[in-house]
Amino acid sequence: METPQPGPADGEERSVELRPRTRSNPEGAEDRRSSTGSLGNSNPSTPQPAVGSRVEGEGEASTSDSPPSSTTTTVSATTAQTVAPIVAATVNAIVGLPTPTPVAKDRPKPTQAPPPLTPPIPPTAEFQLRAPRVNCPEKVIICLDLSEEMSSQKLESFNGSKTNALNISQKMIEMFVRTKHKIDKRHEFALVVVNDDALWLSGFTSDPRELCSCLYDLDTNVCETFNLEDLLSVIRQKIDLPLMDNIQTIPPPFVVRTLLIYSRHAGQLQFSPSDAVNSMLLSPYFFFDVVYLHNGAEEQGDEASWRDIYTSFCNLDSKGTCYHFEVSLCGPAIELHNCMAKLLSHPLQRPFQSHASYSLIEGDDPQDVEATV
């Protein structure tokens, strides 16, 4: 009778000898079944580390050449998943190569927007427009110079013929008055003629025909002097400027604008305003616009004279809210019409003249673009 070989007792789990994980067998085929078979980890609740993660001390235990102890015979699926990167690290250590470290991919940096353009420097405190930008009625006082310079046949008309500045100014004033009347029928207009003295010719009216009836009966005269203070004194006597409790928030019932068309070359203006005139010029509801006609290119030796006059008119505007234009009498008449078209804007709503642009195409030089009517 054959003697049976001694075996394990009933109920005792048969231990299975597995090949140790070495460099020759990093991931044996017979060990892969440990993830599903009875040889796997009996604790399914053990969290599995992410792929590529490494537990502290795992590399030394898994790469040791010593025979595995009884506590390492049970192989888990987690260990099987982390063997490959650990073996690669061991090989690099033996050969002498540095262990590769994961390099984070550089995310492309978003394209930085160009720095914002420097905002334009605002006008100084004394140039700030204090009144609300409302479209209130205007009282426009048109002052027309009747000196002999207005009768010179120098301006080139639309048909190419030469004409005088007075004829062009009369047509220009009529177009201005009728256009302003179409914009707002509440606007009123008055006419003052300037010889040696200023004469209030037509009172305020909202009917353009009434003012134009007095416009074409005028003729030029030989004038020796020009008294700007006398002109402003006449205007001051004919108007009453609004007085508002709060200038910044309460809109005025109306504003007064004086439009002077001037064509004399008598040197720099001599002006010593009285307190009443100076108070009128400083009022936020009074505006003094000027269109200065000069000989321009023909005054090569006396160019500084008309520039001094033009500068004198500009210096009258301490608020920075008035418009000033200079036009050469030797150029085309359309330049005069363009200046009058720019004056159609409401004085409370138009920008500072240095900020105004009349170009329809971006990048064009506003000085070279004609704003035709």
TrEMBL record:
Q: Which organism is it from?
A: Oncorhynchus mykiss
* Name of the protein: BRISC and BRCA1-A complex member 1
Ranges where the record places region Disordered: 1-77, 99-121
Q: Which family does it belong to?
A: Belongs to the BABAM1 family.
GO terms (BP aspect): cell division; chromatin organization; double-strand break repair; mitotic G2 DNA damage checkpoint signaling; positive regulation of DNA repair
What Gene Ontology cellular component terms go with this record?
BRCA1-A complex; BRISC complex; cytoplasm; nuclear body
Where do Low complexity bias regions lie? 61-77
Keyword Acetylation in annotation: no
Q: Which gene encodes it?
A: babam1
* Compartments, as annotated in UniProt: Cytoplasm; Nucleus
Which keywords does UniProt give here?
Answer: Cell cycle, Cell division, Chromatin regulator, Cytoplasm, DNA damage, DNA repair, Mitosis, Nucleus, Ubl conjugation pathway
